[in-house]
## 1
Amino acid sequence: MSYPNGPMYFKGIYHLFYQYNPEGALWRDIEWAHSVSRDLINWKSLKSAIFPSEPFDINGCWSGSATVLPAFKPVILYTGIDSQNRQVQNYAIPANLADPLLTEWVKPDNNPIVEPGTEVNASAFRDPSTAWLSFNGQWKTIIGSRSEQTGMAYLYKSRDFLNWTKAEQPLHSVPNTGMWECPDFYPVARFGRFGLDASVTGNWVKHVLKVSLDMTRYEYYTVGKYYPMTDKYVPDNTSADGWNGLRYDYGNFYASKSFYDPMRKRRVLWGWVNESDSVQDDVSKGWAGIQAIPRTVWLDLNGKQLLQWPVMELNRLRWKRVMMIHQKLVKGQNVEIKGITAAQADVEVIFSFSSLDKAEAFDPSWVDAQAVCNQLGSTAQGGVGPFGLLTLASENLEEFTPVFFRIFKAETNHVVLMCSDARSSSLKDGLYKPTFAGFVDIDLSSKKLPLRSLIDHSVIESFGGGGKTCITSRVYPTKAVFEDAHLHVFNNGTEPITVDYLGAWSMRSACVN
């Protein structure tokens, strides 16, 4: 299972398509697998919707998107690798709109509908986005590409969704970012948590452009202004527009794709979580790659970044809760959270502290959060922190994955570092066990820091500061498995930390068949 493709809501059913090799856990012979759900949690697998069969996609059916046209007509746009190994853009439509599951899809004979012109790199031209309808009746979509090392989103226009014309200028481009994969472009309301259809524009919205960077294998996004008259997107100057930009997730999370859910008036984000073991391990177990828990996304009140939170339906899997209230943690202390299945849990905690006077000095050269976390870790004593959770911990702490905060004092403000550190996650050799980290842009006047972590055997998804900074880690413990997994809260800073509230739930497994 790989990149999510064309998620959509259609007539009461959620659809998720994803890159899939039916022959094994290696990247080849890619087709579009198809699963459906009524609640985003429990899923039923159907037969593949699209698979290589024609000259325009005979060497692979790569990523794309779904758009629901007027009169409830869904269309898939996808990249096909044709018989000349060019990346071309194709479309597919349901064979029977009366079928509520949209089981069968057909690829009309007039494919491809977009071919790379002479000015386009035919080996770097992929992943058409969900289309939006402009004020003048034109449909528009963007396609990821690069020119030399300048990443870009080419803009294409059509009045009938069949005949597409390339705009004179890309929607946006950035030098030295390399190939842009899986571009996603959508509006967000300036105020409120509700989502918007891709075609909404106006002064009361901002736009988000997300790209997946093939060179680095992580993503970044900007928030900015879209000008429909000139078809240009201009990022705000509140974050970097490049490798150091804002990320949905600072961990193992790539090739994400969002969609508008008209049923609940929200925007939902899917992301792919890759393996961190060896290719041989993947071949042995027969599968590789999972989808992260779907998230709701909306614009922070500060207008500078997005907030993310697991979809509300996930709470239905909670079944056994334990609580901790007003637990003080002094330097070097950790307290186990007992009474739940720690290998499959949902944990929400609010940490507090009485003073920031002991916060360590922040070095202005620390622009790379991951490098800072890698240097300082979770065990070295600090001032305010490190404090947080020890997840997937073995009984004697030979294995554990800490998710934690550390607070520093800069010249004019305090800086919050959030980390998810896999270095101690497993005793097994040959694994990729990185430190992941991001800074949390949060007001500390309340002297509180919230954290939520979703723990599911080999994946830990964490949401810091109410969803301001998110980190996903993929880990493979050998001792901290099933009933032998443990969960702790800890503090290794000199400033005492209080667990104001902790709720931890054992989680039922979702139904996937």
## 2
Amino acid sequence: MLLLARNHSLSKLKPLLSLSLISHSFTTQTPYSHFTSIPKPHFQNPTNSQPLPFSTIFFKPFSSSKSLPLNREGNYDEATTQAHLVCPGCGVHMQDSDPKNPGFFLKPSKKDPRTYRLGAHLEHVAHEPEFNNSLKRGLIIDPENLSSESNLVELKPEKPVVCARCHSLRHYGKVKDPTVENLLPDFDFDHTVGRKLALASGTRSVVLMVVDAADFDGSFPKKVAKLVSDTIEEHSAAWKQGKSGNVPRVVLVVTKIDLLPSSLSPTRLEHWVRTRAREGGANKLTSVHLVSAVRDWGLKNLVDDVVSLAGPRGNVWAIGAQNAGKSTLINAIGKHVGGKITHLTEAPVPGTTLGIVRVEGVLPGHTKLFDTPGLLNPHQITTRLTREEQSLVNISKELKPRTYRIKDGYSVLIAGLMRLDIEESSVDTVYVTAWASPYLPLHMGKTEHACTMVEEHFGRQLQPPIGETRVKELGKWVRKEFQISGNSWDSSSVDIAAAGLGWFAVGLKGEAVLSVWTYDGIDIVLRNALLPNRSYIFEVAGFTVSKIVSKADQASNKPHHRSEKKRKQSDQKESVAC
């Protein structure tokens, strides 16, 4: 080696030095060697005394993320974070060996600020008359400005590397490879978070129970509410007896209130929310907050409340159903509190977060904030829909009422997903208001023609489901009966809601027997009316064209209107000439 160093220059020795370092790194212990699930490479076998050829060592493929366990505990604690590389967007363990497995990522190459995007240092040529056109279209660089380091582009902090799935969701709004979704294990809430909350001693815990205002019953985590309520009762009793009892604090956060009509008063909404939460099993609520991450409503009061409840070293858990808005809420809190930037992936796709993500720098002191994967509710209708169908069902703008004035023997359909029949009524008129996405078409007609609607219009005029084959894939069409009563025609008395879709608000002054049809297994609940106001402009019988269809019709009719306008203008000119 000394002879080589004497006979070669330093630049020629660099490749040899790199190769020696590579060979040395393979003979040392890797950061993952303490995991028994990852087998050691064969050239580390101590029984093999003969050294391997240099070509074998150099060309041996090795990935530190090989055989990583597919769990969803994410970066729950520092030990896991140091052992595995975790995606900061969704919490899945990252690996760079197999693009067909969850967590695959590509590490971006480093860029030299002196050569990367030189266009930022370029200046347009002055528009002088003595310059020709070809020179005016060019760009020149001022050598003095380029050489001075003070005029270089200000280096921005590097964005964290995320997995390919998060990258696709952030930039394209869809999952990169749908087949990988089936490889992800279910999130075991009881094992990861539930056992921590059930401990009688330890760090103080605050549970942020996040619920979607536009789908309250479908997104309300009943299992979590029951577990936390039972833990609070058990630990409270132990604490009163002088024993160790760590009582969790439960904060109910109702997100996306900007989707509800502005005419709804916050006082009425909070009273309605507390009533529904009590019926859902949340008997020990510490506080209730109505927030909008998009409009920045209610974030300050929420943060102040959480900080006071968690203390300087508490754990805060954001828990909720899929697509309830947990990651969006945490990102909004990060921007609200001192401009802290979080990198959680946001997308209108259920199940965006895959593992527990510890969010740094949002809450003061040593308080830890965790974003957890969305809890799957198999009784939500969105779990059976495709991505394209989910985009139509998803409510993204303020809800507008669509009201029908009907009587016995008539039905109202929301797309091909839900139908309401008026079977018997003690009054002549019943007001039915559909609260759902504006992209879903409606239909009102006689109940006797309902069977032909399924055969002739489901998957066509009534979408979703999109396509005739999807109608059979969604399951069996089943009926559920309700007996209701009301005391006013001016406002709705009760709601009949379908999890993940929307609801019918019914207003009448009397009694009625209603039937609701939807696919087998979808949760249908009867509740007090959330939005009592109805529209005073009634929908007509037949099909109500959805917003997306009306936009398509407008776009297709624009050329026709332009040609008609030009023809009229030419006719007017000809008449003036005559």
## 3
Amino acid sequence: MSNPRVVPFVLNYFQRRIRPTREVILYNVTLKVFRKSKDLDAMEKLFDEMLQRGVRPDNVSFSTIISCARICSLPNKAVEWFEKMPSFRCEPDDVTYSAMIDAYGRAGNIDMALRLYDRARTEKWRLDSVTFSTLIKMYGLAGNYDGCLNVYQEMKALGVKSNMVIYNTLLDAMGRAKRPWQAKSIYTEMTNNGFLPNWATYASLLRAYGRGRYSEDALFVYKEMKEKGMEMNTHLYNTLLAMCADLGLADDAFKIFEDMKSSATCLCDSWTFSSLITIYSCSGNVSEAERMLNEMIESGFQPTIFVLTSLVQCYGKVGRTDDVLKTFNQLLDLGISPDDRFCGCLLNVMTQTPKEELGKLNDCVEKANPKLGSVLRYLVEGLEEGDGEFRKEASELFNSIADEVKKPFCNSLIDLCVNLNLLDKACELLDLGLTLEIYTDIQSKSQTQWSLHLKSLSLGASLTALHAWINDLSKTLESGEDLPPLLGINTGHGKHRYSDKGLANVVESHLNELNAPFHEAPDKAGWFLTTQVAAKSWLESRKLVTA
């Protein structure tokens, strides 16, 4: 009873020679032989023969067929056989129920799989590593990444040993979740437990580090894959290029692109060209951005809205307003509707455009987003407003756009106000931004220190917030309230996304112009501090000068 070709004859021989009290046992042994050879069709035929001979299948019959369906990666078949059990008065045991968590999960019936898993925890069924792997994958695909980690911790608590499939499934989930720090921790645990990374491990790590913008780790994994002769695919190359585009790693991106072009298995796609055009555009390299656009079109890809948005940014950066208009018209000719991100880019370009050319761009904005165009008319054209009309229209604009672009829109509008010397409008927009919670946590107060946090603001918005804060400090003194022992301004440190200069340099320069007694803290990068005594004296002197 070990050769699947011989086993039907052996079964038939015994059936002719003996009359066992439980003939189902003979059938179950035969089913197990077929399971070993993964022959589900033969098992189903044998099951039909059982019924024709009047032999009633038992739990072992069903669990053997179900386990074969799992081995053959046919979860729907496993579900089909499991759901036949009640009609034969068979009650699944814990092992079968445990197997069905995996089967239902793979078949896409998540609710049933989770119901069985809840029951498994309550009744303490014994679950195998395959089932845990399916549960982790299931939670990952559903976007419940904490659920993935909880299942993993429960698995370890039950003493079930992890394997490469589970580690790779977890790494993939952490990549989807954009949690590179957790991917790093899981990878460290994996290697400490003696497992060597395979292609799937490296691919999951590359996705996790790339999406999470862990550039050093991502580039190290890429280098290690090349050293081990592992092939990259287009998706992994694009993940790296998108990361480089977001972080401004131009040199690394160009090397990766050359590797990709020299690969025999990877072809550049729209995403590839989009990332490269973004890199050239952010650095203001118009000729290379245009060359890459032409190469994209020659390769059979139409420019996407992401590509055209990058080009608008590029032309705006170098002051080529007419080319911004040309790109906008190209967008319309391609039948693409300007989205919030594209309109935000147009608005940002306006903050870099000379006053005399703003009207050209305003016409584009009017077509792209009439609500934004209405707000800009008050700033660019000096439209007279009635009682609170500007604030009302700005509020309607912010309520009509996606949450992720509200802050960039507000920042750019305030920058434009500062450029046009419309400081009252800038303050009104800042106040509206605070009211609508576009800006949060700009100010913090404790018993010992009051602070202004400018890290998430553009240059114009930062200076506007600084003036508003100084006015608030003056009002505090006028009301007879005391200031805390320490006052601080937090600008963050490093290059500012809205300026080649760091925000700290701009704020420091402005504080010097105001003769404000704030000085950079030697032990806290990006912080400017002053004492209560110095601040009080300065605010009172400002009051005298104003009077």
## 4
Amino acid sequence: MGSLVFLFASSLLLMVAATTVSAAIVEHSFNVQNLTVNRLCNRHVITAANGRLPGPSIRAREGDTLIIHVFNKSPYNLTIHWHGIHQMLSAWADGPDMITQCPIRPGNKYTYKFKIIKQEGTFWWHSHTSTLRATLYGAIIIRPRAGSSYPFPKPYREVPILLGEWWNGNVVDMANQALAHGTGPNISDAYTINGWPGDLYPCSQNQMYKLKVKQGKTYLLRITNAAVDNNLFYKIANHKMIVVAVDARYTNPYVTDVLVVASGQTIDVLLTADQPIGSYYMAARAYASAAGLEFDSTTTRGVIVYEGAPSWTSRTPLMPVLPAFNDTPTAHKFSTSLTALVGGPHWEPVPLKVDHKMFVSMGMALDVCPSNTTCQGPPVGAKLSASMNNVSFVPPSSLSLLQAFFFNVRGVYTTDFPVKPPVQFDYTNPSINGDLPLLFAPKGTRITKLKFNSTVEMVMQNTAIIGAENHPMHLHGFDFHVLAQGFGNFNPATDTLKYNLFNPQIRHTIGVPVGGWAVIRFVANNPGVWFMHCHFDGHLPIGLATAFVVENGPTPETTLPPPPVDLPQC
């Protein structure tokens, strides 16, 4: 293991930068329609792309242009988001419903076109409408430009690992029912690895992902948490992993036997098949941080089979010991031990001058139950909601935010999102739930307007309203430096001294610690409208979100172009 870390450092020193290389056009067609599959003893009709679960993988190189034609042959409105891709000057292709576009109606199509600029690594695509992404998702793998190399030894093989979530039912109907009744999302029935639940579930002995390996070879596992409503622990029996990238940003090598992957995050690890020839389970299950909240406590597993090993069905593979569901110390240790690879490909130093400071309380809330409606949220008679700085986000209904910004249409949104909570309180103290007025957050489409190239620092403060939980917050259009994380209420007098300004990890999605806080910083150098939201689908439609409007820059090269002619209309 130590020699592999040494080779990692040597690879960085020997890395050759390509100066003149040609870029390609990578084109795909996604036919999105109903698909009947057998899972957990039943036949189910799901929404899928090109008849596959997960959907097709996209492979390209840095500098390539991607063109994806999406044909909506399903019965639902839909959009596709290219998770982690910055969409520099191509905000029209970002995909969140009613943020950058109106949905693609059934029977219609839309072509997403964008260039991969100064990005490489593991990304993914998914539906950004309702809960369709439970089955409508796939991998995006961006390799370095031709002539460039990874900042670590070239692996023998690269393997996408997509961790998913499965329901025995129609996910759209279940989500609509939860919204109507004001309750939390339905608990899933299984987790999956590359679409398969694994042999711990009923009728699933032959529905398990299998990875064949050669002893002594090193594999690059490109791991994505595509689960809809859960953060996950992931382990491989008797094997160590070396983390080399998170959210498509290279890290210093970090050796571990367990990963914590928040919903929406990606992690690249080097796995060396250095154990005796045999079979070994890989497994994933929930990291459930919210005390007293029901969750899917099942375990998905796949199997790694060494070349030359006897059939894994004749000899039980070794099973990893997973952390307890609520093992926050393990989750926090992993999440805070990662650092950026200074000087590596596409590394960016921390901006030191801050133009726009924000302190954002975030978490659950309540909403008034409409008249003539039976609501079942906690407490009974109210609807479950969520908010950031006591604003529960509501998307527009007649025009996307990006269209309203580009065409200067008034009345669609306001730019008065508060830079701090309207009322300061003891954010992480559960006793705040006795202050009933504090629990209700007004609805609104209030967002933040930013000058081009301004630097934003945001303290995200988790609250105990309704219950504290680790919230995976995803920012579209940018990556951010994670300066610090901690528990309790953020204290500017002492916690600012903990900022890592040298090599903090760079991400697009962060799990804000349960009952704690995280500080991020990013440069708003991409004109358009960019969504920020909790990546739990059960929390997004009830308001745990906001958006940034970034003004155009001073030159044509920093100005958002007009929308494509086939942009869907509302």
